[in-house]
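User: Could you go from structure to sequence for me? I need the amino acid at each position, not a summary. Structure tokens:
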């Protein structure tokens, strides 16, 4: 039972990333009708926002420390981070320690701006073009962004550790008498993803802006005839989708050290998640993300890989084939989406 529950937790952890990326993909497709193959690159950029904030907070200057001596008795030169010099050692050290969560404050405006630039500068010119053209141009953009990250940060993964207070494990089964130690940061990531997902759904469901966006997704022409600038609202939703992907990347860094190809690694799987959930269905994308994450977790167990070698690499695609054979529109797909 302990091992079973741990595999479910592992699946929810991986599924959280799938669900967040798939949610952003579906937002863009549902509002703009664009198949955005650059969305994985936005996930990667978010992770490197955390790397950048961590490096920025770690910038230091040299001071002479009279209290420390070398073997000749000379005072030592020591590096002092600027944040410690400005805020004091205790607070400065704490700020550096919490660099990844603090990166959220930087990532949101950065990703919204990148989303606006992408949509206004490139994507808007492909609204009326075939989906194949959209895939080609956004895939090319993803490669360009990937190479820019590689040129500036190198090809090797960069460690972005979580705060010291979240580096341990928590026995999540103690309340029911089970021994289920699980990394605190992975639990944090899952809860964070739930907050983001619920926030997006609440925004679309309970705000006037969100109601107009949902109406525009259902019948764009009618909304425009009412004198509402639906294009501007869809552009804002592109920025929101970019921010969701970026936030997913920021918080995923301590789980899997950021590297320049992490966006591509998640992109293909996330598109499978979107198709399984149903093109244009936000609840379907989230549901499929968590379900496929759990299936992948169980397929990665020693028993599964010994019985069926390589099953952990193909399980998601096998499930996608079965689902699409039984339900061609996906689990919660809407009629008429990509069926013309």
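Assistant: Here is the amino acid at each position, in order:
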């Amino acid at each position: 039972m302990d091992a079973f529950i741990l595999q479910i937790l592992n699946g929810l952890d991986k599924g959280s990333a799938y669900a967040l990326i798939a949610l952003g993909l579906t937002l863009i497709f549902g509002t703009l009708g664009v198949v955005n193959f650059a969305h994985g690159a936005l996930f990667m950029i978010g992770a490197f926002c955390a790397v950048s904030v961590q490096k920025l907070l770690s910038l230091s200057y040299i001071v002479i420390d009279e209290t420390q001596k070398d073997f000749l008795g000379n005072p030592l030169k020591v590096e002092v981070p600027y944040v410690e010099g400005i805020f004091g050692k205790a607070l400065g050290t704490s700020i550096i320690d919490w660099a990844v969560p603090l990166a959220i404050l930087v990532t949101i405006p950065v990703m919204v701006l990148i989303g606006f630039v992408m949509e206004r500068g490139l994507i808007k010119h492909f609204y009326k073009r075939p989906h194949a053209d959209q895939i080609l141009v956004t895939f090319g953009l993803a490669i360009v962004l990937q190479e820019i990250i590689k040129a500036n940060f190198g090809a090797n993964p960069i460690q972005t550790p979580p705060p010291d207070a979240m580096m341990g494990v928590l026995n999540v089964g103690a309340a029911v008498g089970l021994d289920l130690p699980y990394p605190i940061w992975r639990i944090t990531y899952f809860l964070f993803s739930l907050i983001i997902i619920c926030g997006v759904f609440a925004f679309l469901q309970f705000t006037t802006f969100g109601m107009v966006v949902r109406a525009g997704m259902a019948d764009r022409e009618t909304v425009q005839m009412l004198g509402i600038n639906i294009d501007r609202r869809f552009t804002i939703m592109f920025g929101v989708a970019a921010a969701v992907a970026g936030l997913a990347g920021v918080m995923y860094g301590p789980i899997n050290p950021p590297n320049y190809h992490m966006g591509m690694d998640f992109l293909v799987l996330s598109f499978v998640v979107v198709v399984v959930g149903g093109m244009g269905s936000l609840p379907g994308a989230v549901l499929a993300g968590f379900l496929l994450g759990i299936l992948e977790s169980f397929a990665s167990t020693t028993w599964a890989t010994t019985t069926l070698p390589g099953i952990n690499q193909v399980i998601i695609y096998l499930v996608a084939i079965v689902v699409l054979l039984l339900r061609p529109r996906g689990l919660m797909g809407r009629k008429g989406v990509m069926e013309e």
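One structural detail worth keeping in mind: The first helix runs from residue 2 to 32.
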